[in-house]
Amino acid sequence: MKKFIVHIACITLLFSVISANAGEYTNGGYLGGKIGVNYSGSTGANNSPNEATFAYILNGGYLQGGYIFTSRTLLLGVGGFFDQNPSEKHGNTNGIEYGSRSAGVDAKVGLPLGYWMPYAKLGYGYSTGTKNLNAVAGNSLSGTLGIEYKFDTQWSFLGEYKFDGFGGKNGAGNISNKALTFGFNYYFNAPEIIVAPIVEEVFEEEAPKPIVIPTAVTDAPPI
User: Fold this and answer.
1) Which residues contact 123 (CB under 8 A, 6 or more apart)?
2) How far apart are CA 56 and CA 35, in angstroms?
């Protein structure tokens, strides 16, 4: 856990020193990945309490489109996700060991504010328990709140809080997950940079003026 905290601190430090030459959000697809801490709990399984585990979440294939509404640009997208939460022993020495994994699709709406973009996602997928709760599985709804910072024309840093829970198929048993993650997204379509044409000033060369040599006229003396 200490190593994980150190890793998150390093990522945060990297984010703090990144150049401010950020690009803006554009239409197109992107892929990303996140790591963080997941808190999982279950019901119908010895009432095991929430327990923190390491989590990694992959997301990608987002198709984005923007439109103007009340003088603000909204970013809309749809994509896929895969969450993996390794097993952890929950409760005391008599507790059970389990983790979870889920995969599905989600819809995203964001509000770009310059290089920053707060957003929300609503997802639907299939989740299953692992280890001692591998019989608990079912469809899952998930909700996500996040914020993203575009620090380059094709890269962004983001932080998310995600909650998902599902009704298991093993009697009354189900699992809920709450994940706090940080990661990066790579945008395939970089914003078009318009470069102003360089106008060269043309100087017309003036024709040389003729040199006039005055001729001295002298009167000859009378003979």
Assistant:
1) 81, 104, 105, 106, 107, 140, 141, 142, 143, 144, 164
2) 4
Provide the residue type at 73 as one letter.
Answer: T
pLDDT in tens, 82-100: 888 888 777 665 667 888 8
The answer to whether residues 177 and 165 touch, using CB atoms and an 8 Å cutoff, is yes
Tokens representing 165 are 């829970």
pTM listed for this prediction? 0.70
Q: How many residues does the chain have?
A: 223
Element (H, E) at 15: helix 2-16
What span, in angstroms and rounded, lies between the C-alpha atoms of 17 and 10?
Answer: 11
What residues contact 82, with CB distance under 8 A and at least 6 apart? 57, 58, 59, 101, 102, 103
Radius of gyration of the chain (CA): 33
